[in-house]
Specification:
Keywords: Membrane, Transmembrane, Transmembrane helix. This protein is α+β, with helices and mostly antiparallel strands. The chain has 5 helices and 6 strands, in the order H-E-E-H-H-H-H-E-E-E-E. Helix 2 packs antiparallel against helix 3.
Length: 210
């Protein structure tokens, strides 16, 4: 009789051990499947499909931190192009400056007000001058926040009789804000200042008569 009880006890222990191991294995399998499902869902959400020439091209979305330097440089370049690209048309100047001021704080507005008080924009219009800017480089520091930057560029002032090339150096800081239609990159330029804006060369323009 004791032998039968020992056999029953041993069988019960074996069954209990098997059930425990089975439960653990099942839990591990379910956890792994759940993890893989979430990973696949995340990857699927990051996939974008761009329609080009009637074909769907797959692309992948990336986080803001992956592209922060690229977006910040483009934000800085866009601001400078809007602020310094001028034509002898008051409406065009106001539109471009208005767009630029959405990308910066009141430090940019102060520079604009100073230039306006000095008659800079009035001279552009009266002299039929066009001003173009080309960005040479943008140095951007990600090691501190707000992010410090310096922008190196060239300006061309195209007059009827000459083209003046100027060296332009500006600096400022960048902080994150919410993206909007007026500020798609979600950055705001702060403490912006013009460090250098000197004439480099003057080229005379000549017209040949037919």
């Amino acid at each position: 009789m004791f032998k039968k009880l020992n056999n029953i006890d041993t069988a019960f222990r074996q069954i209990r051990t098997f059930c425990i191991l089975y439960t653990i294995a099942l839990t591990l399998i379910c956890s792994f499947v759940t993890y893989k499902c979430f990973r696949e869902l995340e990857q699927h959400e990051q996939r974008l499909y761009i329609l080009a020439n009637g074909k769907a091209i797959e692309a992948f979305a990336s986080g803001r931190k992956d592209n922060i330097a690229v977006e910040a440089r483009d934000h800085i370049a866009t601001f400078h192009r809007l602020f310094f690209s001028l034509d002898p048309d008051e409406k065009t100047i106001n539109v471009n400056i208005g767009k630029a001021l959405y990308l910066a704080d009141n430090s940019a507005e102060k520079v604009y007000d100073n230039l306006k008080e000095q008659g800079y924009y009035a001279n552009i219009i009266a002299g039929n001058i066009s001003q173009e800017i080309s960005i040479d480089s943008i140095h951007f520091d990600l090691s501190q926040y707000p992010y410090h930057f310096r922008c190196y560029a060239k300006e061309k002032l195209i007059r009827t009789t000459s083209i003046v090339t100027r060296n332009l150096l500006t600096e400022g800081y960048m902080r994150n804000i919410e993206r909007s239609d007026n500020n798609p990159h979600g950055f705001l330029i702060e403490r912006w200042a013009i460090l250098e804006n000197n004439d480099l060369s003057t080229q005379n323009r000549s017209y040949e008569s037919n």
